[in-house]
Design goal:
- The chain is α/β, with parallel strands linked by helices and about 240 residues long.
- It has a domain of about 60 residues.
- The protein is about 30% helix and about 25% strand.
- The protein is built from 6 helices and 10 strands, in the order βββαββαβαααβαβββ.
- The protein starts with a strand and ends in a 22-residue tail after the last strand.
Length: about 240
């Protein structure tokens, strides 16, 4: 049994008398320790697919299973306790310190403040965002923001990480580092499902799919891209 499985999922949005079918009979599976990426043009329904896969939205037809559990019936229990959904939006909390933001979910689960602070620091270190701990959320660059968002979810120790467009708006020099980070989560046994609007975002994935006109189909697995470090080693010349 796969960790995540979608079977013949259909999702529609209605606006008055008009109706748009976003997902048409979509089926897919993801195993623990796999990195899978869904590619598609803007408006193809990538974000909808990820929300359905994470249990945030229920399909109108079909079924979504996580570790054999029907997310439509038990999504609220599984989300945050097995599934981590990652997004960069901080709403009206942009003034909040990064460390406090990462601690919030832990404190909400009854974790003692000292333990929550320690776990938050460890998660930020794991995602390469330790230097951002004392910054405010609205002061982060795009690359830093996605690393902090990943830390916030990673602190909860999910079995599956769902990440919507992790490299959108990120500077080119930082994109490979973020993709490498996602691959490292998969190497640690976490299932990672991400979306991208850029073909380069498929680099190094275990599974990849193309979403278009509501239909999902497999795509060739791309070769690992060279990883560009975020910072050059001491004494290294530019371009070396």
């Amino acid at each position: 049994m796969s960790l995540l499985e979608l079977r013949d999922v259909v999702k529609r949005y209605r606006d008055g008398r008009s109706e748009r079918v976003v997902l048409r009979g979509v089926s897919m599976a993801l195993e623990a320790g796999e990195l899978g990426v869904v590619w598609g043009p803007r408006g193809a329904g990538r974000s909808t697919l990820l929300r359905v896969a994470a249990g945030l939205e229920a399909p109108e037809q079909g079924i979504v299973l996580f570790a054999g559990v029907d997310l439509a019936a038990n999504g609220e229990e599984v989300l945050g306790d097995g599934i981590g959904y990652c997004h960069r939006s901080h709403g009206s909390g942009g003034w909040q310190l990064v460390l406090d933001q990462v601690m919030v979910s832990l404190l909400a689960r009854g974790v003692a403040p000292d333990a929550a602070r320690s776990s938050a620091h460890a998660a930020l270190e794991r995602t390469g965002a330790a230097e951002c701990a004392g910054l405010r959320l609205n002061a982060l660059r795009a690359g830093e923001a996605i690393r902090v968002a990943l830390a916030r979810v990673l602190a909860l120790e999910p079995r599956m990480l769902v990440v919507d467009e992790p490299t959108a708006g990120v500077e080119a020099a930082e994109r490979d580092g973020i993709l490498s980070l996602l691959r490292s989560f998969a190497d640690d046994g976490v299932a990672v499902l991400a979306s991208t609007g850029e073909p380069a975002g498929l680099s190094g994935t275990a599974r990849s799919w193309v979403l278009g006109e509501g239909e999902l189909r497999g795509a060739p697995v791309s070769e690992l891209a060279p990883v560009v470090p975020l910072r050059r080693a001491a004494g290294q010349r530019p371009g070396a």
